[in-house]
Amino acid sequence: MPGRVQLFATCLGDLVFPDAVADAELLLREAGYDVEFPRSQVCCGQPAFNSGHRRAARRVARTFVRAFSREAPVVVPSGSCATMVAHYLPELAGVAPYDVWELSAFLAREPLAVLRRNEGRTLAYHDSCHMLRELGISEPPRRLLEASGATLVPLRRPDLCCGFGGTFSVRQPEISVAMADDKLTSAGETDALVTADPGCLMHLRGRAARAGGPPVVHIATALARGVTA
Amino acid sequence: MSHEIPQPAGRFREVARRKLADPHVQSAIDFSTQRLFDLRTAAWAGLEDVEALREQGREIRTRTIADLDRHLAAFTKAVEGRGGQVRFCRTAEEANTYVVDVCRRTGAKLVSKSKSMASEEIRLNDALEAAGVKPVETDLGEYILQLAGEHPVHIIAPAIEKTKEDVAELFSRVEGVPVEAELGALTRAARRQLRQVFLTADVGITGANFGVAETGSIVLVTNEGNARLSSALPRVHIAIMGMERVVPNLADLSVLLRLLGRSGTGQELTAYTTIITGPRREGEVDGPEELHVIILDNGRSNLIGTHYQEMLNCIRCGACLNVCPVYRKTAGEAYGPVYSGPMGAVLVPLVVGLSRAPSLPHASSLCGHCSDACPVKIPLHEYLLELRKDLVEQGVASRLERLGFTLWSYAWSHPWAYRLSTALARRGGPLAGRLGPGRAWALGRAIPRLGKRYRDR
After folding, report:
1. Domain chopping of chain B, boundaries
2. Which residues contact A35 (CB under 8 A, 6 or more apart)?
3. B409: which chain A residues are within 8 Å (Cβ-Cβ)?
4. Would you say the pTM of this structure is higher than 0.90?
5. Yes or no: domain B51-300 corresponds to CATH 3.40.50.2300
6. A117-158 pLDDT, tens per residue?
7. Do B405 and A41 touch (CB under 8 A)?
8. What digits encode the pLDDT tens for the residues A14-71?
9. Tell me, what's the ipTM?
């Protein structure tokens, strides 16, 4: 039953993809939730955590602990940040686990109330690795996209990483970019490649801007506004 | 582990760049890893309950490693009871010296070798050649690499970067006449060249996929039968086994064999599964007169009692290489001359020391596919994450990197400082592609534009 939720924009969402966060907020409101945006939120600490800098990560993760209450579920429009908060942040910051949800998994809990904004569109969905393998979420985003009227085309190897990998993208830029090329190529002639992770989005879109490829769209945007041809 | 090729920071990227620029290598790795991935996926799907079998495999390996000394003692006793000789070697040098001494004592000039990553690890061929003994690799992939003077790039498919044209050229050089680049012709040439080795070798050297403590048996898993010829025809057989490869009994072995074949090549069983128990006994017509088993430590015991102990559960199937999106782009050479892919990226730093292989924990996008593919459920990507933490805590990570993350963490530890620092970053936008990480990002990707923050709307 809808109620109150806390929206965690994530640093990439806040800084690079504010529209996608606004779209996530809209979807949650359309589904009947009261959306609260805790103003003091910053970041979950993942960039430092995945690079091995635990103290730095802890320092930043504490901003999350201070910002979010235990009164309402936390919803995140990012597979990897949801994984960080669900699997690693509690131990890192020494706190109890959160009731945290990746956006599409949260929306798919209730009978789907998604508007048919992608009627006639052909979309490919890219699984972000942490969301797929650590949270085990693969069906909900696909169900939502289909409920929005889109025809989903499977990628040749949906299990393969797009090459972002946080600091991996700048430590091994050549490999990272080659992986993005494979992913973009495998999407073929679709109207858009949709992902639920701002990291993958920034990487794939950045590569497509240089080397060509389909438009790369955040799932919140695809659902809230529809993919425009 | 004598990794002669050092793994300084930057080497991984340098080799990877070279491999990425070679379309022939790219298509060869893509083809081979895809094929092995498809075969494994199908083989796992054919099991009634793959998760239960993986759990059983993990339990067997964990239980064995937890009591490794006892199992190794039982194994040693059982091998000796069957007339074999066992030598525990702490280092590569000890193992090489032992092998060279056996060759000298028996007057050996020619050694027939079947595929053994442990022997690659100790650079046994170099030690033999220095002692005037000629080792010939008889696994087809290893033989090709030996002719080319190269190292394996995959733990179970060592020559996946080579095409049939490459092989034809190498074989022609041996024969002195052109060998056609056609699979039948190449197979016949390999057979011609290797058969003489099998028949005339004085000593046969193999690895050991497993050693069974209950029976004192060495277990060899191959698809070419070369291990069987190398272990049965020469007068002396030396098997080199990593100390972690012991299994308590045949029942446990059967579980691991079910996992190994399926995970490595998608086979229910490989074409040859050889269980060798002791040298030739009186009245038997086949088998060597002497059987020596080298149990190799070479840094493995560093892992015992640490958080990383489960890495010793590895059965060397290669499944993690085939699913790794980074390995699929670089193949093995970037990781070093012996172990590659996620298992190599974890094992090598633990064995040689992080400061000697600082790039390897970062040679991964942490996608987690390796952990899912591991038949004995080693948490490979979590180990990589832990190793990154060790890099920082042991001071191997650069000071600049540590300073960067520390400054960043202070700036982002308060909302006001976050707002200030990101406002500055926005103004510095045009510089982003020229400095530090931004510069690496800009190699092939557009720099994202920072618009109005969501929180400011």
Report:
1. 51-300, 404-445
2. A4, A5, A7, A25, A28, A29
3. 45, 48, 53, 55-57, 59-60
4. yes
5. no
6. 999 999 999 999 999 999 999 999 999 999 999 999 999 999
7. no
8. 999 999 999 999 999 999 999 999 999 999 999 999 999 999 999 999 999 999 999 9
9. 0.96
